[in-house]
Amino acid sequence: MSNDKERKVVGVVLAGGLSKRMGEDKALLAYGAQPLVERQATILRQSICDEVIICAGEKEYSDIRDIYSNRGPLGGIYSAMIYFPQSILVFIPIDMPLITSLTITSLIREVKKKNESKKVSKSNVFPLVLMNSKREKEIINHVLKENRELSVNRACDKLAVSSGELCVNHDELHNCNTPEEWHYAKHLLESING
């Protein structure tokens, strides 16, 4: 395998959820004329990702299909690990529209420098950057096969993923699961963008 500093970095937008609390597909929510799925992909492209994909299960805008169906974000993470076995993987959820390319770039650089997987902070699992090692794939596969408590946090604990050392604006990590949370995020975006 090549030096980790030279490995391809693949950005992955996790967009396969059912959006039950939102009442409509979060990926298709629009900010201005841009659907959220495009916004998230653009943020990853503006960072130092070499390639960007959408992982959305069976949805028509998905670039890859889940290896294990109906396993939530963890299923999407595992699928990306299988499709891009030699790549460092950067995961952001569809419902975190305030995250910046600067934060993602800083986290990727930290991962490359320390040569270890990292989540953005102790209390937030996303953005998540995985080195995509054989050990990491095996652990996540095991968690998925157990098919119980399929939380990304639980998988990160089993992987011993450390927290980044970044100073991140709390608003960047705002998660939008309901119409009210989306309205708040749009308000923040409007105040940032003028």
TrEMBL record:
<dbReference type="InterPro" id="IPR029044">
    <property type="entry name" value="Nucleotide-diphossugar_trans"/>
</dbReference>
<dbReference type="InterPro" id="IPR025877">
    <property type="entry name" value="MobA-like_NTP_Trfase"/>
</dbReference>
<keyword id="KW-0479">Metal-binding</keyword>
<dbReference type="GO" id="GO:0016779">
    <property type="term" value="F:nucleotidyltransferase activity"/>
</dbReference>
<keyword id="KW-0501">Molybdenum cofactor biosynthesis</keyword>
<keyword id="KW-0547">Nucleotide-binding</keyword>
<keyword id="KW-0548">Nucleotidyltransferase</keyword>
<keyword id="KW-0342">GTP-binding</keyword>
<dbReference type="Pfam" id="PF12804">
    <property type="entry name" value="NTP_transf_3"/>
</dbReference>
<keyword id="KW-0808">Transferase</keyword>
<keyword id="KW-0460">Magnesium</keyword>
<protein>
    <submittedName>
        <fullName>Molybdenum cofactor guanylyltransferase</fullName>
    </submittedName>
</protein>
<dbReference type="InterPro" id="IPR013482">
    <property type="entry name" value="Molybde_CF_guanTrfase"/>
</dbReference>
<feature type="domain" description="MobA-like NTP transferase">
    <location>
        <begin position="11"/>
        <end position="117"/>
    </location>
</feature>
<keyword id="KW-0963">Cytoplasm</keyword>
